[in-house]
Amino acid sequence: MNFPLLQETYPVSDEAKAFYLENRFIKLKNVLSPEVIAHFNEIISKEVDKLNKQKAPLDERDTYGKAFLQIFNLWRENVEVAKLVLSKRLGQIAADLMDCERVRIYHDQALFKEPGGGITPWHADQYYWPIDTDKTITAWIPLQETPLEMGALEFSAKSHQIVFGRELAIGDESEVQIKKNLRINNFEHVIEPFDLGEVSFHSGWVFHRAGANQTDQVRKVMTIIYMDAKSKLKNPENANQINDWNTWCPGAEIGKEIDSPLNPVVE
After folding, report:
1. Exposed, middle or buried, 64 (CB in 10 Å: 0-12/13-18/19+)?
2. For 235, which DSSP code?
3. Which three-class secondary structure state does DSSP give residue 187?
4. Domain CATH for 160
5. Sign of CA dihedral 12, 23, 147, 52
6. pTM of the entire structure?
7. Is the pLDDT assigned to residue 230 strictly greater than 60?
8. How many distinct structural domains can be found in the chain?
9. I need a surface site. Which of 12, 106, 221, 264 has the fewest CB within 10 A?
10. Confidence of residue 25 (pLDDT cuts 50, 70, 90)
11. Nearest-5° angle of CA 101, CA 90, CA 230?
């Protein structure tokens, strides 16, 4: 199904750009229509359901496993999902916020938090990415209206400025240590629900988390990670970055532009 909206530009105001530059996150309303969300909710849910049948019960998983069901690079598996992931509308917003000409896809990721699913601990995404620039951004796209009790994404405004905690993988330690440090530094903890059609964008180094899903419904979210189209592969700094190199940008060379077939430019 084709949705003209996905190829239309979204007006990112100068005020919005300034807010993102200062805080390294922003929530934008009416990015997607109810019709678009309903369509991709159905398609992405079917893909995640396949994974769910293979997962252990919640009480048998660790903190990370309880946080969400996740499935990657659906744009490579489903032509309909590719229309969303490679859409001009979302890519243009990402480029405007990062002040770059064009963006590439790093990878996409469906994140479904089951009823009773646990917290997503404090973390910074770019710990996992062997990318040589801070011009990275994730679009967090709820596939339903998302109240706080469902596990809406939370941000620590301006926290991209601090280095402590960047080296921590997502888990129990990151939740405790980063939470403590953010409190000491008095960064604003932003906890807000998401309206239907509202999409957030956050940088790779801003700290964020999500609460537990206390409802009887699945919290369904699709995410897309973008990077400046000119981004280069850096020498990996940890085992996770080596894994990401091999998985999400295979064949890319250190010091050169990341232009593998898995990292197309959004046109």
Report:
1. middle
2. P
3. coil
4. 2.60.120.620
5. positive
6. 0.93
7. yes
8. 1
9. 264
10. very high
11. 30
